[in-house]
Amino acid sequence: MAGEPGGSSLIAHLVDGLVLTVDAKRTRRVTALRVREQLLASNVRLLGAVLLDRSFPIPELIYRRI
Question: What is the pLDDT of residue 26?
């Protein structure tokens, strides 16, 4: 998608909906929100979002018990 839903909105009318994927290390929150708003304004059904490359560190106290 690369921050611009132009091509996606053309295809979106042929499918039931889209899943927005964002990269935790590359995609800015403002950009993801803007894309979401553009899709909704184009009457594209947004089914959900997938967050890629997010790391969830395990707290040391829990890690020691594993």
Answer: 95
